[in-house]
Each structure stands twice: as structure tokens, then as C-alpha cells.
Amino acid sequence: MGRISLASVTKRFEAGEAVITALDDVSLSVEDREIVTLVGASGCGKSTLLNLIAGFETPTVGQILVDGQSIEGPGPDRGVVFQQTALFPWLSVGDNIAFGLSLRANRDKGNREEVVERMLQRTGLSAFRDRHPAELSGGMRQRAAIASVLAINPSTLLMDEPFGALDSLTRSIMQDFLLEIWEAQRKTVVLVTHDIDEAIYLADRTVVMTAQPGRICEVIGVNLPRPRRYEMRSEPPFIALRDHVTKIVRSEALKGSVLSEIHPRNVL
Amino acid sequence: MPKQTPAASHASPVVKSCYPWRRLSVVLQYAIFPISVLLLWQICSEIGFVRRNVLPPPSTVLGVWYDLVTGSTDVAARYSGTWLDHAWASTWRVFAGFGWGVALGIFVGLLIGLSRAMERVFDPTVQVLRNVPVTAWVPLSLVFFGIGNAPAIFLIGLGAFFPAAINSTHGVRQINITLYKAARMMGANERELLSRVILPAALPSILTGVRLAMGIAWVLVVVAEILAVRSGLGYLLNDAYLFYRNDVVIAAMLSIGLLGFLSDRLVVLVRDILLAWNKRETFGGEN
């Protein structure tokens, strides 16, 4: 449960007269219970790719299969965690977590009370059950948002820069929190980020993408042992991977930019 | 740090003994302006700065108002004891017109906000008609409905319709797309999206429209009662004007102000109950 495969997916957007190719002939398969991160400069189509898997967009050309089935729109089998926390401001934290299970589509997915209790405990938010999202810190809000998605028990987690709005300390804590959850539940995770450290630290495989048009440039296997520890970031294998990814992303970001025309030697 | 603890415990009784003064100061802040206005007004009348029958002093107005309500002193002459009938006539007209105008306004506003097709069908008409002042509808509505309650309730409802409709549309349009996508991703069907995401998210804006509509309803009830119907506080005001009873005119004005204020408080009360969650991230003013 949670195998994703993209076969020659192209996505074009019409912007007035112009046609923008956000993704060009992208093929990728994500194994069950694997963490794949998508990294690249802004505009490389990584968020578009996630939106396609989520079902918010449909590919112009190509096919996307989830567990061998062609997808038809968004659904509770693929839980999406957004950068801008998707919590209903009029509901308490507890009610936000219960929201998914209270929908008709998820009626038979377990005892709501029990699931909410378990999610609150797992995310360390038990004391904040009756608080409203506006009363929480950024990190707590994102934890509550993740809990509300996990409550409907999706086989896949699709995360669009989930920690992008957090400060760097909170972000690293949230990364460990995500890995902890993954160790316990082993879901398939596809995570989009522009933070190269994050992309490597979390991933089994990191997909490096290039812009204009969005293509997969390289898929890098991250053979660091699990469970991951924060200290690994300063060890040679991690640094080698980071340098490698940084080099590609930087050169792609500079390619075609004004900077490269003025100072060609600045390009790595 | 521990050294500060005794100082802090000393501070709290001092704060407590200040409390009555603070309360008095708050009461004064509320009272100072209206009382000054009333005093100035009384003095202007007393010293003959303005003629008493042009601008009767507040003491006279209060006496007339008392007789209007109770009918016990007869200083309001032919109007004595008629207040309750007029006030009730105006109030129910306001609520009848407000009711249909706001209900239809919210319905049409939501339709326009939810569907681009409905926007193309209704929005141009709404946008043009809302620029026709409701007072410009008076002649036509009199010809159509005749003298009576019908044109009054029509005009009030028409005035209430536009702010309710426009703010409802705005409320739907400004909904955070992430919330909508999140609910769809979790498997919400159309009905659940409407009742559990779109309506609550649009509610602050809808209720702003409702509050504006209530204000407009009280303006229009006076216009309608001067021109189209022979009862209510607007009628009382106009009739007293024709008989040169400015004391009754002012009492009627203040009555309209008071009832309008109470209606607004009612809307605000309902809003605060429904939107308790919305108060947390706003600037409420300095203390």
C-alpha cells in the first residue's frame, strides 16, 4: 500500500498567450514505505509534481498510478501536509484532528475519540486539545496539522515544504519528529523541500530536479543508516552527499540567470 | 531572580487598592463626552442662545419623551402615549425587511461566490443595481405597492440585500485555498465542503454584511415612514415637524438612535457568540 509510479508525466500551464512547461517527461517510482525527497531551485516543478500525485492537478501527458490504480482527484489514501498549515481556525486542536474522521468518507476508519487521543499523545499536544490553532506556536501548529492528516491513516504522506515556514531550530526538531513517526508507522513519504540538508537527512532517495522545464536531473540513493541522528549531518558521508546535491542545484539555479551572464566564473 | 519575589508580592495589594479608582476613571471616560454635550445644549437653550421652540433643551425633550411613552403628563399633546405603537411599528418593519433582504442577500452572495457561472448570471445586475440609491426606488415602489407596509418592507429589504450579498461573495472568495484543498484531500463531499469549510470560513465576512444591513435598515425605515406609511417613529418625527413640535422631533430621533443601537448590539452579540474563535489574532485597541 503506497506505491506510486509516474510514467512520462508532462504538465503544461497556460498563462495567457504563453504555455509554461512545469514538468517535462518525468518518470519516477516510489516504493512502499520509502521516503523520497524532491529538491531543487524554485520553479523546478517540485510542488507541481506533488500536486499531481495528490490529485489537485491532472497531467497534460502521461500517467500516474498509486498502487496500480490511476488516480481520480484527491483522496484520503494520500494525506497532504501543506507548507501553510491547514488547520481550521474555528476548531480546537482536538476537533481539527477529528475533522477527517468525522467526514462521511472516513466513517469506518476507527473510533474517533480513540484516534484523536492517540494522535494528541504522539504529537505531544495532549495539553493543547482545547486550544485553537491561533494560540499555538508555529511548530505546534504544524504538528497538529500532521496529526490531523495521520488521523485518517493515509498510506502515503505528501508533504509540500512542511517545515519551510519554521525557524531552523524548530525545523530540525520537526524533522526528527517526522522520522520518529515514520519509524513507528512506516508510511510512504514524498516530501518537497528547498533545504538540501533536510532533503538528505530524511530521505531514502533524493530526487534532484532542474528548472525550465522541470526535469529529474539525478536520483541519489542516501545510504545513511537509520534511525538517523542529528550528528550525522557533520559526518563525512553526509557532507559528501550535501556537496554533490548543492553543486547540481546551484549550477542549475545560476544557469540562465543574469548573474551567470555577468560573471560566468561564479558558476560552480 | 528570587530577590524579586517579595517585591512582586508587595506590588499586588497596591494594584488592588487602585482598582476602585481605575473603575471610576473608566466610568468617567464613558460619561464625559455625552454629559458635556447635554450640558452645553441645556445652557445654550437656557441663556436664549437658540430659541427654545427651535432647539428645546434636553430637560424638555426628556419630559416629552416620558409623556410619549407613558401618556401621563400630556406635554406631548396629541402624541401623548403613542411611543410604544410607533416604536413597535418601526421595529417590526426593520426586522421584516432586514430578514428577507439579508436571507436573500446571503443566498445570492454565496451563489455568486461559489460558482463562476452564477457570477456571470447575477453579478453584473447586482453591481449595477447597488449603485442606484434605495431612496431612488421610492416613487416606483409607491406606484407598485401603494401606501402601507409593503413598500416600506420592500425598501428596507432592498437596502439590506446589497451589503449582505456583496460581503457573502467576498467571504467565499477570500477563503484560504489550503483549507479547501485539505478538506477535499481528506475526502469531504460537496455538502461537507459547504457546511463545514466554506460557510464557517466565510462567516466573519457574512456577518459584517449583516451588521451593515441592520444599520441601513434603520435609515430606510425612517425614509419609508416619512413617505410611504402612516405609522412608526419616522412618521411621528415627520408629523411632529409639520406641527412644529421640535421637542417631539428630537425625542423621536433619539428613540430611533436608541433602537438602532440596540439592534446593532443584538447583531454584535450573535456575531461574538458565533465567532469567538476569530477574536484571538486581532488588535482590540490599547487599554
Overview of the molecule:
The complex is a heterodimer of chains A (268) and B (287). Chain A is of the alpha/beta class. Chain A has 8 helices and 10 strands. In chain A, the strands form 2 sheets. In chain A, strands 6-7-8-3-9-10 form a 6-stranded mixed β-sheet, with helices on both faces. A 4-stranded antiparallel β-sheet of chain A has the order 2-1-4-5, covered by helices on one side. In chain A, strand 9 and strand 10 form a beta hairpin. The longest helix of chain B is centred in the N-terminal third of the chain and has 43 residues. Chain B folds into 2 domains: 67 residues, no CATH class; 200 residues, Orthogonal Bundle (MetI-like fold), CATH 1.10.3720. Chain B has 287 residues and is an all-alpha fold. The radius of gyration of chain B is 25 Å and the shape is globular. Helix content of chain B is 77%, strand content 0%. Classes of the chains: A alpha/beta (268), B mainly alpha (287). At the A-B interface, strand 6 of A face helix 7 and helix 8 of B.
One letter per element, helices H and strands E, the order of chain B comes to: HHHHHHHHHH
Instruction: From the 3D structure, determine the CATH topology of the largest domain in chain B.
Output: MetI-like fold
Global shape of chain A: globular
Query: Under the CATH scheme, which class of the largest domain in chain A?
Result: Alpha Beta
Terminus-to-terminus distance of chain B: 29 Å
Number of strands of chain A: 10
What would CATH call the architecture of the largest domain in chain B?
Answer: Orthogonal Bundle
Instruction: State Rg of chain B.
Output: 25 Å
The quaternary organization reads as heterodimer
Largest interface: A-B, 29 and 23 residues
- Return the CATH class of the largest domain in chain B: Mainly Alpha
Task: Let me know the average pLDDT of chain A.
Answer: 88
Describe the biggest sheet of chain A? 6 strands, mixed
Number of β-strand runs of chain B: 0
Helix-strand category of chain B: mainly alpha
The CATH H-level homologous superfamily of the largest domain in chain B: MetI-like
Strand pairing plus helix content of chain A: what structural class? alpha/beta
